[in-house]
Design brief:
341 residues, 5-stranded antiparallel β-sheet, Transferase(Phosphotransferase), domain 1, single chain, 10 helices, two-stranded antiparallel ribbon, Phosphorylase Kinase, domain 1, alpha+beta, 2 domains
Amino acid sequence: MIAPHPTPFATLTPDVVLDAAEALGLEPDGHLFALNSYENRVYRLGRIDHEPVVIKFYRAQRWSDAQILEEHAFAQELAAAELPVAAPLLLQSTTQPGTLHHYRGFRLAAFPLCPGTAPELDQPGARELLGRTLARIHAVGARRRFAHRAGLETSAPAARARATLLRSALLPDHMREACARASAELVEGIEAAFAAAAPVASIRLHGDCHLGNILWRASGPLFVDLDDCINGPRMQDLWMFLSGNADEQQRQWVELSEGYRQFGTLAFSELYLIEALRATRILHHAAWIAERWADPAFPRAFPWAGQERFWEGYVGDLREQLSLLQDPPLLALLASTGSGT
């Protein structure tokens, strides 16, 4: 296996971005604005006599071409079903027709520039509309599975993240044993939660469904960035909209699930996965930062990850999440009130 290059975008200068856009027939007007993205590099590209577009350069060696094309095909399938997603543009370049393009060793795609604002889910009816839209997305996702993309169906992703974290020089030596012990217990708890929820239907998902990947318009949510789309349980696209104490999460869940039930069904057993999926993300996020630390963008964006006190607090967070995993507060509350789906 080829090790990922620590600075894969070192040669991606503004001139290279504009040259790539020109080669794809996008007719850039020279106006280029970098958008917020750490894993890939994403730009707002002005065009001559055309609407601006978003141009995305994929991180080398993260996804294969086949995996990226599955992302594109899923987004296009959703768009064809009149669902609000930002699907890649089909560019009829004379040399590279399609959605995935290559230029000077980079892989890139263009997307429409979609207007929208940050979601405010506490507005009346917002969570219900979000749930309704996600159920429609999942109905399309359930038609088939991804052939090339990973799955989130066991504790395996959490175990891989744990292994990456424990190999990292970013983890202070004096915290290594405590982190190893706490993370091992957390992985065991995640596996137990998947066993308790079984059998769980696995479908194609957005995979990274949080507020940062949603734009809100007058018609409702617009979903962007399917870069992390995966096979997995429906709950993966729902749990990140639940936060706060058990009572707050219950209110949020009732609103979200009322919308979801209008177009889909969700087994009550998937509620066992909420804290397991949260635990998986906690492990993955720290491992992701550690793995990308040589990329100059990461120390700038996450300076606290280079401080010992962060890792001391992080191990405490793992222990706290283990407690929530062993006694899920929302699950217990919903079971007592009969508010589950």
